[in-house]
Amino acid sequence: MALSRPAPAPSDEFDLVYRREMGFVWRVLRYHGVPPSAVEDAVQDVFMVVYRRWQDWDQDRSLRSWLFGIARRVAATSRRGASRHQRKLAAVPEPAAATSLDEQAADRETLRRLALVLEQLDHKLAAVFMLADIEGLSAPEIARELGVNLNTVYWRLRSARARVNQAMAVQECRP
Asked: 24-27: which pairs have CB atoms within 8 A and are 24 or more residues apart?
């Protein structure tokens, strides 16, 4: 059964409304806190909603009041997105102080050796090790993700850590 979709706005009418009301929508978005760097995208979002929902516009209601309501909701969504973005940026740790080229080379060598060790490790142990020690997931999260018993996760993690430590120590001894 095909779903019927409302017909979009007639092209000439929509173009006329867009040209005539874009400045109004722009001002409403700025008034409602959309930053200057994001207002152009927000204007486009408003007119995408207008285009899709053209048939929902009650002709007895003024066009500007309809546009105002749409713009207000788009502005709120934009602010929430910006707020989430700022929280994510704040959660990112500051970059460490610049390290010397020798330290960077040593770090890369350590990562290369760790990758080789993980390739040799049983895939179940490697998965738990990577999720816990590299991705930072807790044991209960890993158990849910992998669909295994929590005690199995703890056993695999202890076993993987011991094998990784042993293999890394052996590689340290090699020239």
From this structure: 24/64, 24/67, 25/67, 25/71
Give the count of domains, the chain: 2
Cβ density class 55-68: b for 16+ within 10 Å, e for less: eeeeeeeeeeebbb
User: What is this structure's pTM?
Assistant: 0.47
pLDDT at res. 8: 56
Domain of residue 74 covers 11-91
How crowded is residue 145: how many other Cβ atoms within 10 Å of its Cβ? 14
What SS3 class is residue 35?
A: coil
Query: Is 40 among the domain residues?
Result: yes
Residue 173 pLDDT level (bands cut at 50, 70, 90): low
